[in-house]
Design goal:
mainly alpha; elongated; disordered C terminus
Length: about 180
């Protein structure tokens, strides 16, 4: 069977398998947790995106793997890991939701950009260049894509809770200190 077909099958099976795991186990567990607690496991998983640095480590991937692919993929993953940790650290603050959105949008775009870059260098036809990094694409990236989808689902259904008009007037007048995301 041609290498591009095998690569496609591997990624498709990764998406299908992780999709089934997410459907049966991950989403029900996240759905039981209150917001923003339900985002913590996803953010912790994505904190491991530093593993993408493997694409610039000699011996893990072929020295012939084009830097035009390896560097953006590696450093995009590192930035995604940093953003995941920042989102985790700020999750219960006013800016936490914004940071989580930034992480999720950037992280998703980074993964899709990696596939785009891979297609530009015909990566499915030259998978040997990936070395052990092949398993990142076949097993880890599908999980990351699915959990980004779950994070979008959580973020889209999260409502910003506004305080009552009386509490809002008191906060504006400086009588109380509080967050606009708290309720009475």
């Amino acid at each position: 069977m041609p290498s591009p077909v095998l690569f496609g099958i591997s990624v498709a099976f990764g998406l299908a398998a992780w999709g089934a795991v997410a459907w049966h186990y991950i989403w029900p567990a996240l759905n039981e947790r209150p917001s923003p607690e339900n985002l913590k496991p996803i953010l912790l998983l994505h904190a491991f995106r530093f593993l993408g640095l493997a694409f610039v480590v000699p011996g893990v991937v072929s020295s012939e793997l084009p830097a035009a692919f390896a560097q953006p993929v590696a450093y995009g993953d590192l930035i995604s890991a940093i953003l995941a940790l920042l989102a985790l650290a700020t999750l219960r603050t006013r800016n936490g939701t914004v940071v989580t959105w930034v992480f999720n949008i950037f992280g998703t775009a980074d993964l899709l950009f990696a596939f785009y870059l891979g297609s530009r260098i015909s990566l499915p036809a030259t998978q040997g260049l990936l070395g052990a990094g092949y398993f990142i694409f076949a097993a880890y990236v599908p999980l990351l894509l699915i959990t980004h989808g779950l994070a979008f689902r959580i973020l889209l259904r999260t409502k910003v809770v506004m305080p009552s008009p009386n509490k809002l007037r008191s906060m504006i007048a400086g009588k109380t200190h509080g967050s606009l995301t708290n309720t009475d």
